[in-house]
Design brief:
CATH class of the largest domain: Alpha Beta
Strand order of the largest sheet: 2-8-7-6-5-3-4
Number of domains: 2
Number of helices: 13
Mean pLDDT: 94
CATH superfamily of the largest domain: Type I PLP-dependent aspartate aminotransferase-like (Major domain)
Radius of gyration: 22 Å
Structural class: alpha/beta
């Protein structure tokens, strides 16, 4: 198989797996216990916390361990202090469902949720945000890099606007952490969500950066773990693996960026030049280094995925988390795409374990598949599908 769905999940790094094994076998103590087993588990957790913090230039005390990006996002939205005069949350139309669904629930409970529009490339206008801010605004949450089309937002500008108004700014950086340089202090970020399995760590573990001084109310109560913010016995092995994945990502960041960007650009160049009636979606300059998102006019994206799978190639149309909802991409809708453009979309996301041969083979397969699907397309008279 050629795996090109790294935005959905990544292959666990061998060194990450090796780091986890002792905590699944010999060192199985509860980190809350005071005996030697417990102390070793606690020490391992705190080491991982430092590794996670180091990747984004945070202090270890600012890292809250969670089960992943979804919990981190929910913790912010449900835990940010509010009142009757401070209950407006500003977000965007292209957020992940882990933001949009909690916002939908909050709106049913009396919150004022403002959704910022985007342009045809998926960009938010920071000035638009400024116009939406009010005395009622208690939180702004804008994703760092879009999980579907890969567009990277102007985070420093957005954070500056929020900082000037003393409004907490949160960013869902699940797709960005470990793929591009992120310095929470330099950028002025108050809250940031991370997920381990997007950067070659294990699934079921993530983190929320909470800047010192930002108050968040706990949403999971119990034994008081994570300084009372997130109760529950810690998953030591996964935490250790997450920390190791962050350490590896930091040590190889520049090299990895250069490598996956080269593969992505090769993908874009070959697809656009060798297959007719294809468009690249998202911002061509400000995009995640591993994301190539296309629209193949006259082709159904789900048919493309099924055919690619038959050729031994794993890809997707968009977010794996919402595939069961069977609805059109809200991201592409917000960008003004027609139904035909949305249904013909395909997301290809490269990773450090891919190579140029994978790209060549995938493009060659796409040429055959697209030609075959277009031969029976109801739109074949509308477009020049000469390939």
């Amino acid at each position: 198989m050629i795996y090109l769905d790294n935005a959905a999940s990544t292959q666990i790094h061998e060194d990450v797996l090796d780091s986890m094994l002792p905590y699944l076998k010999e060192q199985y103590g509860n980190a809350s216990s005071i005996h030697r087993y417990g102390r070793l588990a606690r020490k391992a957790i705190e080491k991982a916390r430092k590794q996670i913090a180091s990747l984004i230039n945070a202090d270890p005390s600012e890292i809250l361990l969670t089960s992943g990006g979804t919990e981190s996002n929910n913790t912010v939205l449900r835990g940010i202090p509010t009142s009757e005069t401070s209950n407006q949350i500003i977000t965007s139309l292209i957020e992940h469902d882990a933001i949009l669904e909690p916002c939908k629930k909050l709106s049913q409970n009396g919150f004022d949720i403002d959704y910022l529009p985007v342009d045809k490339f998926g960009n938010i206008d920071p000035l638009e945000l400024k116009n939406h801010l009010s005395e009622k605004t208690c939180l702004v949450s804008i994703m760092f890099g879009n999980n579907e089309v890969g567009t990277v937002q102007k985070i420093s500008q957005i954070a500056k606007i929020c900082n000037e108004q003393k409004i907490p700014f949160h960013t869902d950086a699940v797709q960005a952490v470990g793929k591009i340089p992120i310095d929470v202090k330099e950028l002025g970020i108050d809250l940031l969500s991370i997920s381990s399995h997007k950067l070659h760590g294990p699934k079921g573990i993530g983190a929320l950066f909470i800047k010192n001084g930002i108050k968040i109310d706990p949403v999971i109560l119990g034994g008081g773990q994570e300084h009372g913010l997130r109760s529950g016995t810690e998953n030591v092995a996964n935490i250790v693996g997450f920390g190791k994945a962050c350490e590896i990502a930091k040590n190889n960041l520049n090299e990895n960026i250069e490598y996956v960007t080269k593969l992505r650009d090769l993908f874009i160049e070959k697809v656009l030049h060798e297959i007719p009636e294809v468009t690249l979606n998202g911002d061509s300059e400000y995009r995640l280094p591993n994301n190539a998102h296309f629209t193949f006019l006259g082709v159904n994206g789900e048919d493309l995925i099924i055919k690619l799978d038959e050729y031994g190639i794993a890809a997707s149309t968009g977010s794996a988390c919402s595939v069961n909802t069977q609805r059109a991409s809200h991201v592409l809708q917000a960008m003004g795409f027609s139904h035909e453009q949305i249904t013909g979309s395909l997301r290809l996301t490269t990773g450090i374990f891919n190579n140029e041969k994978d790209i060549e083979q995938t493009v060659n397969s796409l040429k055959i598949i697209v030609k075959e699907l277009r031969s029976v397309s109801p739109f074949k008279e509308k477009y020049s599908f000469n390939s």
